[in-house]
Amino acid sequence: MRFTKPPKTFDEQIDLLINRGMAVADRPRALHYLAHLNYYRLGAYWLPFEQDHNGHQFHPGTTFEQVLDLYVFDRELRLLVLDAIERVEVSIRTQWAYHLSHTYSPHAHLDKTLFKAKWHHSGNVDKLKREVNRSHEVFIQHLRNKYDESLPPLWAICEIMTLGELSKWFANLRRGKDRNAIARTYDLDEVNLTSFLHHLSTVRNICAHHARLWNREFTFTWKIPTHRPAALLENFHNHGERRIYNTLVMLAYLMDQTSRNHHFKMRLHELLEKYSVDETGMGFPENWRALEFWATTK
Question: Rounded distance, CA 132 to CA 96, Å?
């Protein structure tokens, strides 16, 4: 079947929303946002307000402002999550490079025997070489010009790795003891850190591409810790395990481990108090505010 729908003007888009039952109190304001946010993009945020997804009729009382508030909430949530991911990523990069360089050599990433045989080590090294050649970072150019090795040492190469690449270079270490040595920095098992890194790279991409995060159901179920640390385990929610809540728990825990005087928990509390959102759609348990883990003065 060929697509035959003609494009609609911004005014026509507003009329369509009104005809479906959405109240638009300030038409010029709504026109402004549709002109800059895209009707199709905002559609992901008015979907929860629809009573009939086939006919796209809205629940009585639905307003354009409610949809816009949900959109802004999701944007602020993504920024909060991105800030936490940055700190966690930098910490794990540091631990990965430190452990391998001190246990083996500054260029341990070039030793294919340290990585799983099924992993295409040479191809991933070649990918790093291409990124080094493209890099305009002063420290990379200095190392390339001064030394003979085909790649910079671990503590430099990790700085130009993406989170997805770091996840793969960590997961494909051949020896579990190497992964565990790094994971123990955070009092985690390597299985859980490996799984969470993979999940975190997906979350990071969602945030970086400005996609919907707040009530997303992830396709990948990461392995939640079940043995240690004991103080963390009770905070996960087994219902809605593919929602963002468990990710926020793990990020908050890792922020506690890596960033003194962080304000992640407080900012999350403030964000959820600022906007009226369906927390159950995010995977939050009803009693989450009563958990000691989330009690914070920072």
Answer: 19
pTM of the model: 0.92
Q: Identify the H or E element spanning 100.
A: helix 64-103
Number of domains in the chain: 2
163 within 8 A of 89, measured Cβ to Cβ: yes
pLDDT digits (tens, 9 = 90+) for 137-157: 777 776 776 665 678 899 999
Q: What is the pLDDT of residues 59-94, one digit of tens each?
A: 999 999 999 999 999 999 999 999 999 999 999 999
Per DSSP, the residues of 252-292 read HHHHHHH-TT--HHHHHHHHHHHS---GGGGT--TTGGGSG
**Pairwise CA distance, residues 286 & 276, whole Å:** 15
Burial 99-125 (b: 16+ CB within 10 A, else e): bbbeeeebbbbbeeebbeeebebeebb
Residue 2 lies in a domain: no
| Residues linked to residue 57 through DSSP beta bridges, in sequence order | 52
Q: Are 116 and 176 within one domain?
A: yes
Q: Decide: residue 15, CB within 10 A, 0-12 exposed, 13-18 middle, 19+ buried.
A: middle
Domain that holds residue 77: 71-294
Query: Which H/E stretch holds residue 198?
Result: helix 190-208
A 10 A CB-CB count for 187 gives 14
Q: For the CA atoms of the chain, what is the radius of gyration?
A: 23
89-124: pLDDT as tens digits: 999 999 999 999 999 999 999 999 999 999 999 999
Q: Where are the beta strands (DSSP E) in 187-257?
A: none
> Do 110 and 144 lie in a common domain?
yes
